[in-house]
Design a protein that fits this description.
Blueprint (H helix, E strand, L loop, with lengths): L1 H46 L10 E8 L42 E9 L5 H6 L4 E8 L4 E7 L6 H11 L4 E10 L2 E2 L6 H4 L14 E6 L14 E8 L3 E2 L3 H11 L12 E6 L1 E3 L5 E4 H14 L3 E4 L1 E3 L3 H12 L3 E5 L19 E7 L17 E4 L3 E5 L2 E6 L5 H13 L6 H9 L2 E2 L14 E2 L7
Parallel strand pairs: 7-10, 7-13, 8-10, 13-15, 15-16, 16-17
Antiparallel strand pairs: 1-8, 2-4, 2-5, 3-4, 5-12, 5-14, 6-19, 9-11, 11-12, 18-19, 20-21
Helix pairs in contact: 6-7
Length: 458
């Protein structure tokens, strides 16, 4: 009897032991399927972009704000902030956060590429390959011809660049990259001049100076700008609406806003170009073609300095255009970027050698939490908690966008007094007045430091 019981226990034990690896195999299989299937779903979801519809030439709306009754070209009022992973709202204005894997190289118009100075019979040759020309632009001041091409069905931008370079070695081709206005909303109150501790401005401070601005739409009838010396033009695509006017209005008012609004140079003239538009899906973007047109216009208008509170990838065609603009004597200042918490990719145009890169700090002299870090940072200026003009009133905002105008106006004043226009000379001039905020000397957080220079005019 005892032997039988022992045999039963032994058989039961064997059954339990043998079932364990089977259950383990089943569990592993289920986990593998879940992870693998989930990964496949994510990759499939990520790979599905929404191609933009082809548009015609850029909508060159010109508005001169010289008095009442000036139309603003369909400028929209502010709306609720949207996540940057959404396809709508202010995603491309840099106001919402981005995922940790964000790269400006991946932000561009789907279904199209830009080609600069193509070879003879290029347009004819690519027709048989399934490409077509959407837009032709000759940037007369920069002597650059640019084609915007639509891609064959099923071909993405990376494949298109590879295909065309193989067919046309040395071809200057790139994506039609998106650029972002570098401003983020915040909630404290301080107008620009008060924040930098400059004396209150007068309506004539900055008279005779012409500043360029490449940014978003501008509400030229805003109380801070109405009646100021402001010429505005939009370079959005035909068939699309200009993007919202919040960011552009804020930057314009910091530069030349009326004294009541704390404008840095109320008497200066501002040539303002909009490079942002609303896509068919509702996303707000600023693309490379619009930026190229804006740079060309700035060259035509002979501005003394250009403020670019935007950021994007290192686009070869944009880089070439900026080099040519620099050769014509244009001084360029740009926001250092708000990607510090998103992988800290270099922000262009700020990271180009001949562009002065400006970062932002707050009243506590601490760096703006989202500011980019890097060797390309040149100087720092207030950019946290600035009370800015926006359509319908004012709002506190933060970002490197709102720091760059402080250095832009100082350079404009220096150039007006006959200062050298070379970027190296501009840096040397500003370094004489810096307050070192970080590690001794130039560092990757504050650059050389805060330019503590008060304009002679008030």
């Amino acid at each position: 009897m005892a032997k039988k019981q022992r045999r039963k226990k032994s058989r039961a034990g064997k059954k339990k032991k043998s079932s364990t690896p089977v259950i383990g195999i089943i569990v592993c299989f289920v986990l593998l399927f879940a992870v693998g299937g989930g990964w496949y779903f994510v990759k499939q979801y990520e790979s599905k972009g929404v191609p933009a519809k082809s548009g015609g030439g850029g909508g060159g709306i010109v508005v001169k704000a010289t008095g009442p009754g000036v139309k603003t070209g369909g400028l929209s009022k502010s709306s609720k902030l949207q996540s940057s992973t959404s396809s709508s709202g202010y995603a491309s204005l840099g106001i919402a956060s981005k995922s940790a894997g964000f790269s400006p190289d991946d932000e561009f118009e789907a279904g199209e590429v830009l080609v600069a100075n193509p070879p003879d019979r290029f347009a004819v040759s690519i027709g048989s390959m399934g490409f077509s020309v959407i837009e032709r632009v000759h940037l007369t001041e920069l002597d650059i011809s640019v084609l915007r091409l639509s891609l064959p069905a099923g071909m993405n931008v990376k494949q298109a660049r590879k295909t065309l370079r193989a067919k046309f070695p040395g071809l200057n081709i790139d994506a039609n990259h998106y650029f972002e206005a570098q401003g983020v909303e915040d909630y404290q109150m301080s107008v620009p001049r008060a924040l930098v501790k400059w004396r209150p401005g007068t309506p004539t401070c900055g008279g005779g100076i012409r500043i360029g601005m490449i940014d978003a739409s501008v509400d030229v009838m805003h109380p801070a700008l109405k009646g100021q010396r402001l010429e505005y033009r939009s370079f959005h695509k035909q068939g699309r609406r200009p993007g919202p006017a919040d960011h552009g209005t804020a930057v314009a008012a910091i530069l030349i806003g009326k004294p009541k609004w704390g404008g840095l140079l109320p008497g200066a003239e501002l040539i303002a170009a909009n490079m942002f538009e609303t896509t068919e899906s509702g996303r707000v973007v600023g693309n490379g073609m619009a930026l190229l047109k804006a740079i060309n216009w700035m060259s035509q208008k002979r501005v003394q300095v250009i403020n670019m509170s935007v950021a994007g990838a290192d686009n070869k065609i944009v880089r070439n255009a900026l080099n040519k603009a620099r050769a014509k004597g244009l001084v360029m200042v740009a926001a250092a970027g708000n990607w510090g918490k998103k992988g800290n990719k270099p922000a262009f145009p700020a990271a180009y050698k001949d562009v002065l890169a400006i970062t932002a700090f707050g009243t506590d002299k601490k760096i703006y939490a989202s500011a980019n870090l890097g060797k390309y940072i040149d100087f720092a200026a207030p950019g946290v908690g600035i009370y800015t003009a926006v359509p319908g009133g004012g709002r506190i905002q933060s970002g490197t966008s709102f720091a760059s105008p402080f250095v832009t106006v100082l350079l404009a004043l220096q150039i007006e007094r006959g200062g050298a226009k070379k970027s190296s000379a501009m840096r040397e001039f500003l370094r004489k007045y810096v307050v070192d905020l970080g590690a001794k000397g130039k560092d990757e957080t504050f650059g050389w430091g805060f330019v503590n220079l008060q304009p002679r005019c008030s």
